[in-house]
Amino acid sequence: MLALTTGLLTHANPAQAAPPPPLQAVSHGPTQGTPVPGSVLTADLGTWSSTPTSYTFEWLRDGVPIPGATGQKYDVQSVDVAHQVAPRVTASDGPTQDSFTGEPLAVRKIGSSVTLDVRRVHPPGKNKLVWTAITFMSIERPWTTDGGTVTAYKQKDGELKELGRATLLREAAFVRLPWKRAPLGKTRIVVCYAGNDAVAESCSPVDVVRRPENQPGA
Question: Rounded to an integer, what distance in angstroms lies between the CA atom of residue 167 and that of residue 147?
């Protein structure tokens, strides 16, 4: 009796196609925002080899994770000044994930500038004129210099002699100068803001007060 053996043929199932390639970062844009204290930086989401289903974020200071900084946005702090801040973005499509680190941004202090106008004014409630160095501050937002101190100096032979100080209010200050009348000749006055952890120091251009001998009451 002849025994016949029937072989079984296996055919590939079209539904069992090769798995998709793993998710990969393709490129990313710059981090948005100005790297100064008080501003907000926003991480770019990047472009990927396929569509991510979720993202996670981690902000780094000089390559070290910043505690609690795990959102797409980051509020720049004064402690970040003189350091490099960058976002690390991780994307996932479920089975696979990949990440990139944005270009580090050098955090700097907020810029400031001082203008000065030396004149005689009437103090509030008084009729007598006094010499005053009127100071106006200008800074980048979003910070304020209110509560900071400006100092007026007499400049002579390359050296500075302090004449008085005042506190800034609404970015202006009035430094009363210790004169009943301006000194004879030319007096060079400059006023400086010392800065703080977030705002850079700055000094005004020199303002020259002139009083010739034939004007003793100037």
Answer: 6
